[in-house]
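Bump. Still looking for Cyclic nucleotide-binding domain-containing protein structure tokens.
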Amino acid sequence: MIPTPTPTMLRALPAEHRQRLMRFAREVSVPQGTRLFEEGGKADRFWIIRTGTVELDMHVPGRRAAVVETLRHNELVGWSWLFGPHVWHMGAEATTPLRAYEFDATAVRLMCQEDPALAGTITQWVGDVLAHRLRSARTRLLDLYAPYGSGAHA
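Sorry for the wait, here they are.
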């Protein structure tokens, strides 16, 4: 199985839409070990990583949180802000010092309501990110639990 690149905003959005979205960007620096959000919390922001890494994790009763994926440069952190009920489905932690663009989700959703073309490209981008992450999770699960793994290493 050939890995596909993560859909980035740069590749997914036309220049005009990218520029409009970036008007809502705020540059932030986040120390290593900082929790960006917790599973079940209100999804009111999202980030695009400039430098550093973020681990997405899931709560596992009676155990440490299980790391699901590590995100890096140009990757989207958070998609729950776009889809109701706007609650995080996972947690996220900066595993290195992080520099990122942070976006106010409410402001971006309002902008999307006013511009259906922009809403379509942003929804397509975030949907592509979700599909990529689901494929990655499937491959990891097959590697862990299938009798012969995912076949990706053959």
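The domain at 19-144 is CATH 2.60.120.10 (Jelly Rolls).

Edit: fixed formatting.
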